[in-house]
Amino acid sequence: MLLEQEPRLRELRVFDLHLSSWLEELKTGPVQVTPIQGDVTQAHQVAAAVSGAHVVIHTAGLVDVFGRASPETIYKVNVQGTQNVIEACVQTGTRFLVYTSSMEVVGPNVKGQPFYRGNEDTPYEALHKHPYPQSKAQAERLVLQANGRKVQGGLPLVTCALRPTGIYGEGHQIMRDFYLQGLRLGSRLFRAIPASVEHGRVYVGNVAWMHVLVARELEPRAELMGGQVYFCYDKSPYKSYEDFNMEFLGPCGLRLVGTRPLLPYWLLMLLATLNALLQWLLRPLLLYAPLLNPYTLAIANTTFTVSTNKAQRHFGYEPLFSWEDSRTRTILWVQGSTQ
Ligand SMILES: NC(=O)c1ccc[n+]([C@@H]2O[C@H](COP(=O)([O-])OP(=O)(O)OC[C@H]3O[C@@H](n4cnc5c(N)ncnc54)[C@H](O)[C@@H]3O)[C@@H](O)[C@H]2O)c1
Ligand SMILES: C[C@@H](CO)CCC[C@@H](C)[C@H]1CC[C@H]2[C@@H]3[C@H](O)C=C4C[C@@H](O)CC[C@]4(C)[C@H]3CC[C@]12C
Question: Where are the transmembrane segments (predicted)?
């Protein structure tokens, strides 16, 4: 997105623990693309990568709500890693920092209270019990608190945080997992979540586009945007998690069985709790980390949707991809991803 949309770009450094092979293809254009294999938990590696950069987009993170990683590892990558990025900016004189936060820093909370078409100012009881949202909330706080800190050379750091809702699109592994599961079940999926529970989703291309716009506008609009948070949104429809996935899986040949959940909530919660117990019992022997656990069930069962125009007001954001384009691109990816 940066290479396509930012004409003033001279160099793009990509710092990641795992460098993808497609990065090589980006090296053929006029902009210098520099892949750097590194670990965000290693302060010296981060500082070396950041040195001389005009703007840093910090999107690296450990996304885990399934119990694959330990809470300590999640903290180390998401919180300590973010602190390292901030310190690297301060030490090396980089003034603009964009952080990929998450809707999860707000909710859904453990009480299951709905957040219905809320915006950045909507009051909501953010109660975090899970390591992932806890770490994202802590990291976001660090980023916002760092706004205004003096960087090397004496000028102030300008930071802001973007909070995507559930991202979908090309590369969405869970979508592919549901697709494969549906194929195994005879081209069917069984409804587990009531259709009335709305879930916020945003297309990956629009998330990227919003990052590019923020990176571009942070300098001229530092006064307005510094220290701010923005939900990432687009025109994707408000639907339940499963009904939304069917927008893509339906055209791929799957159908969702049932107009209401086939199992009652208490039974699903029992199964989710059993999964959590099994995970704990098996941990010394193997990693058992299914999609269903008490936390993911609670998120999927709680309405969390965003309706805001803050990004449009502050930096002129309009989605780059329409809902129709986002849908088509995602369907094509699901169809191609299993061949
Ligand atoms: N997927 C979503 O629905 C969603 C929603 C809101 C926010 N986010 C946030 O967006 C960001 C990207 O998430 P994603 O879904 O693309 O996840 P992802 O796992 O696809 O991407 C995360 C990237 O971070 C890298 N990374 C992990 N640990 C690292 C480390 N120690 N050092 C350097 N790089 C490391 C990974 O290699 C990976 O490329 C994360 O910060 C996540 O919290 C994701
Ligand atoms: C009960 C199952 C029946 O089909 C459905 C389980 C679905 C869950 C695995 C997903 C439901 C909501 C998802 C989360 C949400 O989209 C927002 C997120 C924020 C982001 O920062 C990280 C990913 C995630 C936590 C996302 C993870 C998967 C769900 C819990």
Answer: 263-282
Q: 21 and 64 in contact (C-beta within 8 Å)? A: no
d(CA 162, CA 210): 8
CA torsion sign for 125, 130, 135, 138 is: positive
How far, in Å, CA of 82 to CA of 90, rounded?
A: 13
- Hey, what are 89's tokens? 């900016």
Domains in the chain, ordered, with CATH? 38-337 (3.40.50.720)
Closest of 334, 55, 84, 75 to residue 216, by C-alpha: 55
What Å distances lie between residue 164 and 3, 55, 206, 310, CA to CA? 21, 20, 10, 13
Q: What's the CA-to-centroid distance between 300 and ligand 2, angstroms?
A: 6
Q: How far apart are CA 68 and CA 174, in angstroms?
A: 14
- Residue nearest (by alpha carbon) to ligand 2 atom 8: 296
User: What average pLDDT does the structure give for the chain?
Assistant: 96
Q: Supply the pLDDT for residue 129.
A: 84
Q: How far are the Cα atoms of 63, 162, 166, 290, 296 from residue 180, in angstroms, in the given order?
A: 21, 31, 20, 14, 19
Task: Provide ipTM, 2 decimals.
Answer: 0.96
Look at residues 174, 182, 188, 185 and name the one whose alpha carbon lies nearest to residue 290. 174
Does residue 115 surpass a pLDDT of 80?
A: yes
DSSP state of 281: H
Taking residue 27's Cβ as centre, other Cβ atoms within 10 Å add up to: 12
Catalytic residue among 99, 132, 179, 317: 132
CA 190, 196, 197, 202 torsion-angle sign: positive
Residue tagged 């040949």 (tokens): 253
Both tokens of 147, joined, read 């706004």
pLDDT class of 180 with cuts at 50, 70, 90: very high
Is residue 154 scored above 80 in pLDDT? yes
Tokens of 169: 């699109």
